[in-house]
Design goal:
- The protein is an alpha+beta fold.
- It has one domain.
- It is 42% helix and 22% strand.
- It contains four helices and three strands.
- Strand 1 and strand 2 form a beta hairpin.
- The radius of gyration is 22 Å and the shape is elongated.
- It starts with a helix and ends with a helix.
């Protein structure tokens, strides 16, 4: 077993509802969490990516976040707003926003004369 995996196993000693998971070079939290808004009621097994590397300092960050998440769950104050980054799309933009921005740029660049001369 890798030394990082051993440190992660030691970190699990104080946690009961949340586990720290190593995903190749990064760490994530996994546990039974309330479903996101619009998914219905109840809990489901969910993984939250932390964006920290699987090294000793990353494990400290992951442990602190795992303790906070477990505390939020135990105190029944968990909300997805605290744990989701934006709306899940790069830069906080939706696909429709990217499409509108692209169309505005391309329309400004392409002129009728360019189209006639090149095609």
């Amino acid at each position: 077993m890798d030394s990082i995996d051993q440190v992660i196993e030691q970190a699990h000693q104080g946690l009961s509802r949340i586990t720290i998971v190593r995903r190749v070079r990064k760490l994530a939290l996994r546990g039974s969490l309330p479903k996101r808004p619009g998914e219905g009621r109840g809990n489901k097994q969910t993984t939250i990516a932390l964006g920290v590397f699987a090294n000793p300092s990353g494990i400290k960050v992951a442990l602190a976040k795992a303790q906070r998440l477990e505390s939020d769950l135990n105190m029944e104050r968990f909300t997805w707003d605290d744990w989701e980054k934006g709306d899940g799309s790069p830069g906080g933009k939706s696909a429709a926003d990217w499409g509108k921005e692209y169309a505005a740029v391309k329309v400004a660049e392409v002129r009728a004369s360019t189209y006639r001369n090149n095609y």
